[in-house]
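Lab notebook, design round three. We kept the backbone fixed and only want residue identities now. Task for the bench partner: fill in a sequence for the structure below.
Input structure tokens:
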């Protein structure tokens, strides 16, 4: 979101210990195990040499490059995004396509769909909208120990529908730990190993399950969309995916909650005195919705509307005749439009600095 007043300097000033600086990056490079860096290309070369001649040169080169990349990915000898760029160098070099042919998949519409979703998620984090959604969900579901677990799972699942799994876990785990601490302050006996385990595992399962509900929930979903379009010419729209994904995620989330709280890690107590007040107070501390929260919420709502409803609206006879361009709008366009809006829609800098 764009900051519009003179507090920009305060926004840009990094918090102590918040991010690694250039020197930290250099230290990381200097400490890297260079034998792991060398292992990738050496293993790839060895594989290319030992494969039978019945396999074409290009086939052996692809196999070697795949092994090289796999080793670097697994060992993180090089940053994961950097490893992903190796085909741009290797494939044209060994005659597996021109630079234009190799580079074109990097600009696939699926990439922009995921990029837009990630930017939307970051906007929700920066504005603290995610925190309000999480606490409100828990408050609505209930404050008994098993209900708190369900609320955390539902909040984790909902956020992971739009935000990456890792980012959602980073968001929700501190909330879970904070709730555990608050519950312990009310009733020390309530926070046993089972309740704590069900809380943290609930976040993990909620994140994993919720991300299957939308096509931007995690990269494999978007890759499947791209594969179906490229191989079969089938455009799996955002709304169509949700028609299957949301019911599936809801059922699996309920099953996971039953297993966690009723079978494997049944909480030590069935009720928590003062639990409702605890969650209510935490929610009240957030205060009224800030300008940033509201505007990010509007952008989210608009994106969801275009993703889910516009494809169906575009098929209505009158709309198809009078507003034909609606049928040409695809999910990646919506994602990028929402992402651009996050950068150009202004908010007050205090909405960010104070948080």
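Proposed sequence:
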């Amino acid at each position: 979101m764009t900051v519009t007043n003179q507090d920009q300097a305060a926004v840009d000033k990094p918090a102590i210990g918040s991010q690694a600086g250039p020197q930290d990056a250099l230290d990381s490079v200097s400490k890297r195990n260079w034998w792991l860096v060398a292992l990738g290309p050496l293993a790839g070369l060895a594989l290319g040499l030992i494969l039978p001649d019945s396999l074409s040169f290009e086939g052996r080169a692809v196999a070697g490059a795949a092994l090289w990349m796999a080793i670097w990915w697994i060992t993180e000898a090089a940053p994961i995004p950097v490893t992903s760029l190796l085909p741009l160098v290797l494939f044209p070099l060994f005659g597996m396509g021109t630079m234009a042919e190799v580079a074109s998949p990097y600009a696939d519409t699926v990439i922009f769909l995921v990029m837009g979703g990630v930017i939307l998620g970051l906007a929700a984090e920066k504005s603290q909208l995610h925190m309000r959604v999480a606490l409100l969900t828990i408050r609505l579901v209930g404050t008994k120990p098993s209900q708190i677990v369900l609320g955390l799972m539902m909040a984790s699942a909902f956020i992971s529908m739009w935000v990456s799994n890792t980012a959602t876990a980073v968001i929700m785990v501190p909330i879970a730990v904070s709730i555990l601490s608050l519950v312990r302050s009310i009733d020390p006996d309530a926070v046993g190993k089972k309740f704590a385990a069900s809380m943290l595992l609930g976040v993990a399962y909620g994140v994993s399950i919720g991300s299957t509900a939308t096509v931007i929930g995690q990269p494999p979903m978007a890759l499947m969309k791209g594969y179906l379009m490229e191989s079969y010419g089938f455009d799996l729209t955002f709304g169509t995916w949700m028609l299957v994904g949301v019911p599936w995620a809801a059922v699996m989330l309920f099953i996971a909650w039953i297993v966690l709280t009723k079978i494997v890690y049944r909480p030590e107590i069935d009720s928590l005195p003062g639990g409702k007040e605890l969650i209510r107070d935490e929610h009240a501390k957030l205060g009224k919705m800030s300008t940033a929260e509201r505007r990010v919420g509007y952008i989210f709502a608009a994106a969801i509307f275009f993703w889910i409803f516009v494809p169906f609206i575009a098929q209505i006879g009158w709309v198809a005749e009078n507003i034909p361009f609606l049928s040409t709008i695809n999910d990646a366009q919506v994602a990028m439009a929402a992402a651009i809006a996050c950068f150009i829609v202004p908010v007050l800098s205090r909405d960010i600095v104070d948080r």
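Keep this in mind before ordering anything: DSSP finds 20 helices and two strands in the chain.
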